[in-house]
Specification:
By secondary structure, the chain is an alpha/beta fold. The protein has two helices and seven strands, in the order βαββββαββ. The strands form two sheets. Strands 3-2-5-4 form a four-stranded mixed β-sheet. A hairpin with a 4-residue loop joins strand 6 and strand 7. The protein is globular, with a radius of gyration of 15 Å.
Amino acid sequence: MYIATNDETCVKIQEVLAAQADKPQNIRIFIAGMGCSGPSFGLGLDNQNEGDLVEEISGINFVLEKSVFDSVGEVKVEWVGNGYSVQPVNVQPSACGSCSSCG
């Protein structure tokens, strides 16, 4: 597995983990929904499950279901000033055609 991130993001996540010390100390990356432009991702504090892929970066355990990794590949997690951006490293072109719900 491969998670792309940076030092600023790791510091922000470590702050969350410290403030939530009574919660699981793994950061789960999950698919929160699907749209015509592909998956929407979320982050959450969670336990590691059997079969999860795990990558440790700067003392942070990122966990991801193998099926999610098989579907989207490498993932980038970045702090963007007011929250986190989570997206595949290799973004696929939009499959969106002319549906009225796009933009």
